Fold:
Amino acid sequence: MNREEAIHRLKKENYQAAPGQEFEIDRMQTEDAWGVARCFFAVYGEHYPFDVYYIPEQLVEENRLGNLHSVVARTSGGDVIGYGALFRSSAHSRRVYEFGQGIVLPAYRSTTAMYCIQGYVLEEITTREDIDEVFGEGVCNHTLTQRLCAIEGFGETGIEVGLMPPDAYSYEEFPNDRISTVLCFKCIRNKPQTVYFPLIYQTELTYILSGLDISRELLPAGSAPPAAPESGIASQFFDLARVARFNIYRAGQDFPLKLTALEDEAGRRGIQVCQFFVNLGQPSAGWITDLLRNRGYFLGAFLPRWFDTDGLLLQKVTPIPNPASIKLHSLRAQKLFNLIRKDISSNKNCFRTPQW
Structure:
């Protein structure tokens, strides 16, 4: 079954789970996979940008491979009325998982389903699997997911401006603006290490690290190019979401040429959001950061254990959403947002609207 076939089947059956059923929280079983597809279709229609949640065979296989650890709220009648997961997304380290896809059917949103799913994922799954760090992307068209992460002890480390396309969410106030997310991390297994910080972001990184329960030594990153001739870059293109992500796990002297080639490819594909993840475990992080800022990239977030060493997100968004569309839960998130706005306004190479 492919995405088109799954969507056709979901539309045709128009399934509705009966309200008011009792439910339990459990790891997803093979027989739950179509119920998960129904759940995503009920919440997002056909617009969720990742195929795997509509296609049962793919969802089961990703769990078997350990790329996903899926949890469901299952009723006594077998309906899946809620879902959450840890999953490998864009971190270069395979021991860093994203926490997300938390959804509950509208008829069950007044229940404790979402809180119970979150608790099971973060208390049961993280203790049984090889996981070093968990992160979440709390959407900013509302603050509920940001609050859920705060309850579980996540620390905010930055903001992905305009990450998600507007048709993935209902946002009546800003229907045409891309949806931003707050990045937040929770340390599962601490590993003391050195962070080579770009001098331009010393104040920002010092502030972010002060709010995280991790052990780090800060050393200034150099502005000279690395000795290695070739860069190592892992690329991801999410064409439906119009997002491209590039993990620079090894800096090389050819990075300026590769940067041009990657941006050209993004342009051909109609990409609106380009994200580069810089390895802060390498002294050349300062050189890479300077090159990206000269191309109009701006501060996104600090990323604990992203490469096993830490990372730094730099981002470019066109068109950039209205800053008023970014709803934030905490004072810390607001401080991070102000630091990002300052970085944008101080860089003449950044594309911005008058609101920024």
Summary: Residues 113-128 form the longest helix (16 residues).
